[in-house]
Amino acid sequence: MLHTAFTLMVRGTPQLYYGEEIAMEGKEDPxxxxxxxxxxxxxxxxxxxxxxxxxxxxxxxxxxHDWLAxxxxxxxxxxxxxxxxxxxxxxxxxxxxxxxxxxxVIINRAKDLKSLSLPVFDVADGAAVxxxxxxxxxxxxxxxxxxxxxxxxxxxxxxxAGGTGERR
Length: 168
Known about the structure:
Helices cover 19% and strands 30% of the residues. By secondary structure, it is of the alpha+beta class.
C-alpha cells in the first residue's frame, strides 16, 4: 500500500503492474504473476468487480482508487514540482506544488505514530492544512512550519490553503 501511494504521488508517470491494484502476490520467475482472476468465461471468480474480490483485495483496490483520484484532482501532483521536507529510516515527507496549490504527502512505514514538524514555504501563518487522504486531523501553519501526527504504517496527504510551497 505504501509503495502504491509513493508511486502515484512522486514526480513522473506512475506505472502499476497488473494486479497491484488488488495486491496480487508473486514469487520468483516464472511465478512472478499469475493470471488476474476473472474476465474470461468459466473463471471461478471475477476480481474486476467488488463482489468478486476478497476483503484484502477490496481494501487494496479502494486504496489505489483513492490515491489515483487524488492525483487526478490535483494538478500539483500530476505536474508540479517536488520538494523533500523530511526523511529518516521510516518516514518520507515531501511537497508537490505549483502556483495554485501545495500538497504535502507523508509516508510512515514505522509501527509507531510519528510526530513531525515540517517546513512550509510561501505560506502565511494561520494557513489551514486540510487532510485529503489517510487522516482526519486538521492543522495550521505557524512560524513557517506545520506540526502533524502521522499514523503508523500508512500514507497521508494534506492540502495547504493559500500557499504554493515554492521556496523563495
